[in-house]
């Protein structure tokens, strides 16, 4: 096994910290060896580095030695002993900031301090670089209302309310547990860990607290952190909250859990910690246990808000969830625990958030509308994890709506050019042979189509190709209605026309590059004005794009937003692209790529597939960067073909 002596490590550390050449005389003086020994050791170090298949130290006559910037990361990766992944030395600033915060979180569990000099040595950076990083570290800690306090000459340590420090520990240690040895950080044995889990399971069953697996894991994590903090340094939650229902099942359950843990692991659990367990029981995600949940929550502010939002969604997207009791029930039950944890600043991790963002961009837009209303009406802040949980409820609602849609009666007009006998047979076969519940409302000759009002018609089924497009879909079959025709109609009604292509929604006049805008409204104005000038939309549609943006941001991450219409007339469904010269603050983050969608209300159900196809092209930052870099309409068309 390759092994670096302490002297070799010191020399490497000096070179890793420097961005310039270092002469052998300086290295010799710093380490206390001769220049000749420095030269010999550099050669030996390079031999070891080559054995590890990494880059080497470079030398230049008259200048000295240097590790080029592009080589530092690879050398750092092999410089440490990696039996623990904690030892990984970050090279990028953001990674260093996160590493420093994790370092202080670990130290807070051990009641230890750390000096800047020691941090700089461990990170292989100069004190100047570290001090710049520390400004960002302090900004992040400030969001938790935590400071770094200097303890005489011992160094720095976290200082703040116990509940805030615990939340930092959860966010920076527990959520990174795949890379950290939590058993070593938390002073709780594996035997005690099993006992705690058994105690919690036994009592949530006894008191019938129906929390989900995610809720259970979160509760266990907070109990284990509490035990570690109490056992190691007697750090208890600062104060008991005022709003406790002492005769509730949750409080009885919390007391029972605390009492059993005290007896099992010989640890005194103060009243404030019992109250903390109670609050976590209230705040964890719940399971639906009865169908009458909705009735007991009617006429609450939450129920009324959900009803209003469902009406708004129907007006925007023609998606009618007003009779979806499962959606209302699920949202109400979710909000019961979610509002508790949001108000008590007890965020919960959503392990599926990236998958939700990648696979369900349109349902997430619906969830953002609800989240925005909740923020406005209840004066709270809803993070992306909670939006993700809300999204899942809307995913289910969309699936149910699609199922209902597929089972509803399809009203069709039939175009037949071969006479009365064939048309009668055609109508009878369509209504008897398909499983699509088709009602043929009329059989017409080709020339008669211009006289038909298509308001209540879903589809045109024709035995000949149509000479032009009408306002509803059409499908061509043979006069005998073969099994292949039946399958064709089934697929057409279930999945839509396979002729649709997202690339057909783009045109050069709606492709803007190097937009020099400073605000969101400026961007929307330029793009909607162009759509209006081209007679693609009317005034009402233009206004609805602004109205939609005001309801909730259309940002989808990676510097991308997707504004879209809710109402008005769309004379030509289109996608308008705007690439900003420089990113601007939209609402929550910086945006540089704007993808504006305008779709006719009759086709608005296609938003789900449309959003998903668009999101697949911008779901990673490197894809967005390449899109912006290209600034080419042909590249855009090719991307979506």
Report on the structure:
The radius of gyration is 32 Å and the shape is globular. 53% of the residues lie in helices and 11% in strands. Helix 5 (93-110) packs across helix 7 (127-143). Residues 81-88 and 288-293 have low confidence and may be disordered. The protein has six domains: 6-79, Winged helix-like DNA-binding domain superfamily/Winged helix DNA-binding domain (Arc Repressor Mutant, subunit A), CATH 1.10.10; 86-184, Arc Repressor Mutant, subunit A; 186-283, PTS-regulatory domain, PRD, CATH 1.10.1790; 295-400, Orthogonal Bundle (PTS-regulatory domain, PRD); 408-495, Rossmann fold, CATH 3.40.50.2300; 502-639, 3-Layer(aba) Sandwich (Mannitol-specific EII, Chain A), CATH 3.40.930. With 641 residues, it is α/β, with parallel strands linked by helices.
Any chance you could write out the topology, listing elements then pairs?
Elements: H1 6-17, H2 24-31, H3 35-51, E1 58-60, E2 64-66, H4 69-79, H5 93-110, H6 116-123, H7 127-143, E3 146-151, E4 155-160, H8 162-172, H9 182-185, H10 190-206, H11 213-233, H12 249-265, H13 271-283, H14 301-317, H15 325-343, H16 353-359, H17 361-378, H18 384-407, E5 410-415, H19 420-433, E6 438-444, E7 459-462, E8 474-476, H20 483-495, E9 511-515, H21 520-533, H22 539-551, E10 555-557, E11 560-561, E12 574-585, E13 590-598, H23 607-617, H24 621-630, H25 633-639
Parallel strand pairs: 5-6, 5-7, 7-8, 9-12, 11-13
Antiparallel strand pairs: 1-2, 3-4, 10-11, 12-13
């Amino acid at each position: 096994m390759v092994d670096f002596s302490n002297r070799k490590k010191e020399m490497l550390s000096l070179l890793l910290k420097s961005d310039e050449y270092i002469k052998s005389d300086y290295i010799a003086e710093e380490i206390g060896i001769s220049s000749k020994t420095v030269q010999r050791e550099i050669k030996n170090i390079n031999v070891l580095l080559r054995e590890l298949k990494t880059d080497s130290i470079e030398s230049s006559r008259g200048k000295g030695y240097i590790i080029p910037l592009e080589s530092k990361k690879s050398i750092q990766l092999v410089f440490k002993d990696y039996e623990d992944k904690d030892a990984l030395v970050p090279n990028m600033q953001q990674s260093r900031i996160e590493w420093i915060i994790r370092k202080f979180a670990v130290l807070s569990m051990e009641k230890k301090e750390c000096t800047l000099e020691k941090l700089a040595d461990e990170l292989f950076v100069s004190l100047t670089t570290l001090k710049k990083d520390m400004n960002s570290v302090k900004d992040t800690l400030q969001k938790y209302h935590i400071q770094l306090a200097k303890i005489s000459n011992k160094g720095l340590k976290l200082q703040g309310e116990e509940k805030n420090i615990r939340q930092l520990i959860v966010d920076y240690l527990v959520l990174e547990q795949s890379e950290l040895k939590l058993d070593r950080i938390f002073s709780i044995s594996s035997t005690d860990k099993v006992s705690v889990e058994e105690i919690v399971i036994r009592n949530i069953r006894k008191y019938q607290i129906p929390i989900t697996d995610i809720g259970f894991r979160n509760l266990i994590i907070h109990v284990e952190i509490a035990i570690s903090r109490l056992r190691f340094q007697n750090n208890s939650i600062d104060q008991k909250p005022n709003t406790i229902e002492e005769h509730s099942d949750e409080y009885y359950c919390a007391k029972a859990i605390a009492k059993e843990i005290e007896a099992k692991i010989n640890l005194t659990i103060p009243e404030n910690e019992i109250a903390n367990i109670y609050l976590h029981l209230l705040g964890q995600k719940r399971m639906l246990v009865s169908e009458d949940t909705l009735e007991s929550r009617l006429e609450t502010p939450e129920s009324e808000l959900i009803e209003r939002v469902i009406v708004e969604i129907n007006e925007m997207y023609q998606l009618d969830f007003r009779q979806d009791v499962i959606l209302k029930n699920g949202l109400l039950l979710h909000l019961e625990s979610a509002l508790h944890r949001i108000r008590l600043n007890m965020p919960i991790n959503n392990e599926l958030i990236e998958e939700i963002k990648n696979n369900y961009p349109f349902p997430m837009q619906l969830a953002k509308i609800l989240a925005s209303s909740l923020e406005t009406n209840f004066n709270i802040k809803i993070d992306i994890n909670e939006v993700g949980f809300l999204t899942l409820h809307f995913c289910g609602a969309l699936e149910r709506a699609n199922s209902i849609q597929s089972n509803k009666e399809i009203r069709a007009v039939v175009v037949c050019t071969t006479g009365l006998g064939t048309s009668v047979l055609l109508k009878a076969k369509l209504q008897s042979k398909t499983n699509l519940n088709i009602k043929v409302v009329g059989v017409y000759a080709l020339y008669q189509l211009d006289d038909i009002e298509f308001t209540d018609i879903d589809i045109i089924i024709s035995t000949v190709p149509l000479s032009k497009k009408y306002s509803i879909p059409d499908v061509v079959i043979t006069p005998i209605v073969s099994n292949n025709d039946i399958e064709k109609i089934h697929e057409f009604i279930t999945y839509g026309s396979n002729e649709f292509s997202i690339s057909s929604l783009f045109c050069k006049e709606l492709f803007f590059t190097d937009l020099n805008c400073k605000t969101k409204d400026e961007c929307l104005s330029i793009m909607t004005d162009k759509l209006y000038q081209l007679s693609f939309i009317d005034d009402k549609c233009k206004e609805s794009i602004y109205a939609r943006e005001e309801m909730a941001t259309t940002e989808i991450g990676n510097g991308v937003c997707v504004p879209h219409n809710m109402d008005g007339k769309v004379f030509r469904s289109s996608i308008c692209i705007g690439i900003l010269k420089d990113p601007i603050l939209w609402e929550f983050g910086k945006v540089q790529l704007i993808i504006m969608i305008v779709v006719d209300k009759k086709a608005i159900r296609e938003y789900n597939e449309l959003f998903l196809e668009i999101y697949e092209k911008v779901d990673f930052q490197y894809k967005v960067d390449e899109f912006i870099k290209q600034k080419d309409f042909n590249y855009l068309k090719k991307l979506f073909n």
